[in-house]
Amino acid sequence: MVTTWDAIIIGAGLSGMYQLHRLRGLGLRGRVFEAGTGVGGTWYWNRYPGARFDSESWTYGYSFSDEILREWEWSEHFAAQPETLRYCNFVADKLDLRRDIEFSCRIREAAWDESAAEWEIASDDGRRARARFLITAIGPLSAPTMPTIPGVETFRGEAYHTGRWPHSPVSFAGKRVAVIGTGATAVQAITEIAKTVGHLTVFQRTPNWCAPLHNRPIDAETQARLKASYEETFARCRQSFGCFIHDADPRKALEVSAEEREALFEKLYGEPGFGIWMGNFRDILVDAGANATITEFMRRKIRARVKDPAVAEKLIPTNHGFGTRRVPLESGYYEVYNQPNVRLVDLRATPIERITPAGVKTSDTEYAVDMLIYATGFDAITGAFDRIDIRGAGGRRLRDKWAAGPRTLLGLQTVGFPNMFTLVGPHNAATFCNIPRCIEQNVDWVTALLAWMRERGHGRVEPTPEAERQWTEHVHETGRRMLFTQVDSWMMGINSNVAGKDKRTFIVYAGGAPRYREACEEAAAAGYAGFAFA
Ligand SMILES: Cc1cc2nc3c(=O)[nH]c(=O)nc-3n(C[C@H](O)[C@H](O)[C@H](O)COP(=O)(O)OP(=O)(O)OC[C@H]3O[C@@H](n4cnc5c(N)ncnc54)[C@H](O)[C@@H]3O)c2cc1C
């Protein structure tokens, strides 16, 4: 039997959980389908050692419920994964969400049935369901990728991907461990693993510019102050480009003296969180000359922290400036390479040829290890969409429509896929955001649209081709200003481990959250201009 719901939500991370809650508020029957065995999404899957926030904890949680804000206490400024997963479960309990979530249910297909004006979904294990609305809450970083190195399946030791970390403890004591990758996840994992490992080998292809996290516990006095000022905190987040508490310094890097510049860089390097990325001179991410000043500062920091000059040089990025790829935040990462039991292998000099039963074979050596950790990240933003066979009107595949890059209206809908909403989808401000702040905006907007349609008796919505063209063009235009669009990274849709993801495409929205919110609000105020209803 196929049950019909008012709305199907795929994914029970922060997006899916909040969307379910809001649908209930409208009196709609929503059903969530989730691949994992529990809620939390990112925080359910990413249990690798060292996994924690880069967002300040107290800016990350949901803001919509005073009760949740009052009752929940973050123990650290940047909470670790187990605490965030507890938070997700706390919210699920509080809102009694689980009764409408089907766990261990990976959706494989979703097809629009024009005659019934409904979506039908099917899971890997043959479950089916139908609904008028399909809301994807499948996550921007939820489709893990393995490297395309031959021999992966031949390795005889323990092997893990950081994004699919086991639920039982993993010990590194006395073991020879290899980590492949040096992105944000790897930087966290390497720092933690190095504390107990027998011997660690890090295989690095592209070094990243990492900045100190400066995490610390939240004491009672600070807790009281943070809780009393939630309203101001969220208001401040709303005003900033990426919904962080950090907002750009109004000055340009080259309009101040070298001493003033150095003083700001030094101050930001000594402060917690993304300030050095988001709260820096306003032109460091758009002007190459300005960017060169912070890049040089960061280069000096690496040289000062890593004792062996040859190792320091390997850790210094040469193909991109600071902030033009996702900045990993670290807590002693560079000092790991001062440990005698840690070795850095530069894959640009000696590429990996294959994984062998004993370990990793590069062009010059075979490294024998007991454990291999793939910190090779995700097929970002569009990856989770590509892994579902989504077919819209006339059987057209979303994968085909987006093959040369996504086309969307507000990163929330796409022509030919009526009644489908893509929370935290490509071209959405949430892709460049302290994400829950944007999740709440996305969900609130979609919920208001559903209420509006119901009041008017509309059963179908999709963007007009012209509105989609205009938004997509706007996404490209705002992107082109940014230095990051001149660099290969997942933020530009590049993933060398995924076939076809070798050309830069605009997948994130770089116009800033305030501008995005304004566009959403303007469309709504004009009777959802750009959308066609039936
Ligand atoms: C290690 C790590 C650290 C991060 N740190 C931060 C941070 O500090 N600040 C920040 O703002 N963001 C951070 N992020 C981004 C993070 O993904 C978002 O903050 C947020 O959790 C996204 O929530 P979501 O519900 O949209 O997606 P997710 O949390 O990814 O949830 C998506 C859910 O959909 C499910 N799903 C996907 N496809 C299917 C399918 N076909 N069938 C069924 N279920 C499916 C997945 O199993 C998953 O549970 C981090 C991401 C990672 C990986």
Descriptive notes:
There is one protein chain. By secondary structure, this protein is an alpha/beta fold. It is built from 18 helices and 20 strands. A hairpin with a 3-residue loop joins β13 (352-355) and β14. Bound molecules: flavin-adenine dinucleotide. Residues 10-16, 33-36, 41-42, 44, 46, 51, 53-55, 60, 106-107, 137-142, 185, 384, 387-388, 424, 434-435, 439 line the site of flavin-adenine dinucleotide (FAD).
Structural class from helices and strands? alpha/beta
Terminal-residue CA separation: 29 Å
- Approximately how much beta-strand content do the residues carry? 15-25%
Largest sheet: 8 strands, mixed
Tally of DSSP helical segments: 18
Mean pLDDT equals: 96
Count of β-strands: 20
Oligomer: single chain
Ligands bound here? flavin-adenine dinucleotide
| Helix content estimate | 25-40%
Can you tell me the residue ranges where pLDDT is under 50 for at least 5 consecutive residues? none
Shape: globular
Q: Summed up, what is this model?
A:
The protein is an alpha/beta fold and 534 residues long.
Ordered list of secondary-structure elements with their pairings:
Layout: E1 3-10, H1 14-26, E2 30-33, H2 42-45, H3 57-60, H4 66-71, H5 81-94, E3 101-102, E4 107-113, E5 118-123, E6 128-136, E7 158-161, E8 176-180, H6 184-193, E9 199-204, E10 211-212, H7 220-228, H8 230-239, H9 258-269, H10 275-278, H11 288-305, H12 309-315, E11 329-330, H13 333-336, E12 342-346, E13 352-355, E14 359-362, E15 366-368, E16 371-374, H14 383-386, E17 389-391, H15 398-401, E18 420-422, H16 435-456, E19 461-463, H17 465-480, H18 513-525, E20 531-533
Parallel strand pairs: 1-2, 1-6, 2-3, 4-17, 6-18, 7-16, 8-9, 8-16, 9-12, 10-11
Antiparallel strand pairs: 4-5, 5-6, 13-14, 14-15, 19-20
Helix pairs in contact: 1-16, 16-18
Bound molecules: flavin-adenine dinucleotide (FAD).
